[in-house]
Amino acid sequence: MGDARYDAIGHGYAANRREDPELRARIWAALGDSRTVVNVGAGAGSYEPPDRHVIAVEPSDVMAAQRSADRVPALRGSATPLPLRDDAVDAAMAILTIHHWDDEAEAGVRELRRVARGPVVIVTFDASVSAEMWLLADYAPEMTALDASFPSMDELASWLGGTVQVEPILTGRDTPDWTLASFWAHPERVLDPAARAATSGFARLDPEVCARVVADVERDLHDGTWDARHGELRTLAAYDAGMRLVVARP
Questions:
Q1: What is the pLDDT of residue 9?
Q2: Which residues are CB-neighbours of 186 under 8 A, at least 6 positions away?
Q3: What's the pLDDT tens digit per position in 186-227?
Q4: What is the pLDDT of residue 198?
Q5: In 116-206, which ranges are continuous DSSP H helix?
Q6: Predicted confidence band at 3 (pLDDT cuts at 50, 70, 90)?
Q7: What pLDDT was estimated at residue 16?
Q8: Domain boundaries 3-249, CATH class
Q9: Domain extents for the chain?
Q10: Are 120 and 160 contacting, i.e. CB atoms less than 8 angstroms apart?
């Protein structure tokens, strides 16, 4: 898992990556009546349900240190293997994390299924859709190349087995969770170092590539090119930037 990655970029992460209330409601609904939940790649604790017994697993010390006092402490560990017996919990969740599991993605997703008696709830990206967003399509094709390694929806379904439902998650203009998807409505955010630092999309880029992307977006905002090409986006309340809710039931 991406422990070293988030030890490097995770400082101050929680400030710009706050829970989106609509996404939170969908995640909690997908967990159903589960009373015990393991949250893998738990980070600072976003989207953990407060009314259930949560086991949080997080490899990064930097991320785990940002968990608020009302969150359970996180066990240091990765998805492979999880320190739980078969069917040990009612449900498992992994929120915007499996794309950091790299070569462990399949084994990690299968671990989620192994330990959960009921639903496995994953929020991830369909890279084929996110590649169409202006930031990747016009300015950062290097992100698209990196995202090609993300598990596809078909791969996730095959690893999870059972009944798998995949639903689009529209990213709202005013979402408080500043994922890379949220940049669809805020090109100016590309110029904000704190906003960039809260996304692994920018963190994975070579510094020279990142500097080029920032300079190109700044130029096109200044001379009106961005608005000429994409200004209609400023009229939308939400946009499909590729985020997906995957719910698997045995």
A1: 53
A2: none
A3: 999 999 999 998 898 998 899 999 999 999 999 999 999 999
A4: 87
A5: 127-130, 134, 141-147, 153-160, 193-197, 200-203
A6: very low
A7: 80
A8: alpha beta
A9: 3-249
A10: yes
**Do the Cβ atoms of 74 and 128 come closer than 8 Å?**
no
Give residues with Cβ within 8 angstroms of 207, minimum separation 6. none
Q: Are strands 120-125 and 163-168 parallel, antiparallel or unpaired?
A: unpaired
Using a cut of 0.85, tell me whether the model's pTM lies above it: yes
AA identity, residue 90: D
Cβ contact 46:39 at 8 Å: no
Question: In this prediction, what percent of the chain has a pLDDT beyond 90?
Answer: 84
Q: Is the peptide bond before 81 cis (omega within 30 degrees of 0)?
A: yes
Q: What is the spatial distance between Cα 34 and Cα 179, in angstroms, rounded to a whole number?
A: 27
Non-local (6+) Cβ contacts of 51 within 8 A are none
Amino acid letter at 63?
A: M
Cα→Cα distances 170→69, 118, 162, 182, Å? 30, 26, 26, 10
Structure-block tokens of residue 200? 């692994």
60 in Cβ contact with 112 (< 8 Å): no
Distance CA 79, CA 77 (A): 7
Amino acid at 85: R
